[in-house]
Amino acid sequence: MILRRIARKTKPDISLASLSAAVIMGCRGVSLRQFLFLFSVLLIVVNGSVSSSVNSKPFVIDPSKVKQISWKPRAFVYEGFLTDEECDHLVSLAKSELKRSAVADNLSGQSKLSEVRTSSGMFISKSKDAIVDRIEDKIATWTFLPKENGEDIQVLRYEHGQKYDPHYDYFVDKVNIARGGHRTATVLMYLSDVAKGGETTFPSAEESPRHKSSTSDDNLSDCAKKGIAVKPHKGDALLFFSLFPSATPDPSSLHGGCPVIEGEKWSATKWIHVDNFNKMVGNSSCSDLNDNCEKWAAVGECTKNPEYMVGTTDLPGYCRRSCNVC
Ligand SMILES: O=C(O)CCC(=O)C(=O)O
Residue 200: beta bridge partners? Predict the structure, then answer.
C-alpha cells in the first residue's frame, strides 16, 4: 500500500491579533499618522506571510506517488496530488455558483442539458487566485503540457444517484475544436472521498493481466466492474489521454462517472488541448489550427498524414486550409 503524505500548509506563526496588540501597546504616545503607518506595515507583513504559505514550496513530482493504471487508454493516478487545503478551497469557490451540468451537442457543439450528465458544476477562471494558479502550475508540471493549453478548471458536485454516462472528452463537432484543437488530456482531481459509488470508469479499457490480478472488485459499485475504474479519494488526481501520440482520437478513452450511492462526490476537471486554448478564434470555418500547417502541407503531410491534416467530416483535421479541402 502506498502511504499518502499530504503536505500541510504551514500556518503563519504570528497572529494578526497578537501583532495588532503589540503595535497598539508600542504606539502609546505616537501620532495618529504614525500609528496608521505602523498598522499598514503590519498588514503587509501578515498578508505576505499568508500568501507565502500558499506559494512558498515549489511543487516537485514524486514518482513513487504515481501509478499507471492502464496503457489503453494511457491513464495514471497521482496519490495526494492536491493538499486538503487546495481541495477545500476549490469546493468553497464553487459552492455558491453551481448550476446543472451540460453536455456538448455532437452536431452543433452547443451546450445542452441531458440525462447523460446529472451533476452540477461551475468553471473557475484561470489563475483566479494564488491557490488556483498553483494548482494549474502543478498540472502543467505533472503533465508536461503547457498551462495555456488548458481550459478553466470545472468543479463538479455529484449528489446521491448523480452520474456522467460514458463519453469521450474529444469533440466530434467543428465548433469546439476550433479553439485549441482537440482535447488531448484530462486531469480529474478528486476533492472529496465518496463512501460508495462515484468511481471514474473506463469501460473500453484493455485490462492487463497484471492489473486484473492486483485489484479486488469488493469495494466497487456494479457500474465500475467493467474495464478499469478509479475510486475517488480526496486529493488524488487521474490523468488520461483522449488522443493517441499521433494526435488521433483514442476510442479506449471512453469514460464516465458512476452514480454516487452513498455520500457526495466533488471533483475538479482540467481539460487540456493540443494547442493554445487562450487564443480566440474567428468564425471562419476554413482555417488552419496550427501555425505550422503551411510548412507541413508543403512537404506532403496532407497525403502522408491525412488523419491529422485533413480529418473527416465528423472530426475535421487541423490543416484543412493548407491542404485545400475547404
Ligand atoms: O466524474 C467523473 O468521474 C468523470 C467526469 C468526466 O468524465 C468529465 O468531467 O469529463
Answer: 230, 257
Q: Is 188 or 58 the better-scoring residue by pLDDT?
A: 188
Ligand 1 closest atom vs CA 232:
3
- CB of 266 within 6 A of ligand 1: the answer is no
Q: What global pTM score does this model have?
A: 0.70
Summarised one tens digit per residue, pLDDT across range 182-221 is 999 999 999 999 999 999 999 999 977 666 655 566 689 9
Which one of 69, 117, 156 would you pick to mutate in the ligand 1 pocket, going by the greatest count of ligand atoms within 8 A of its CB? 156
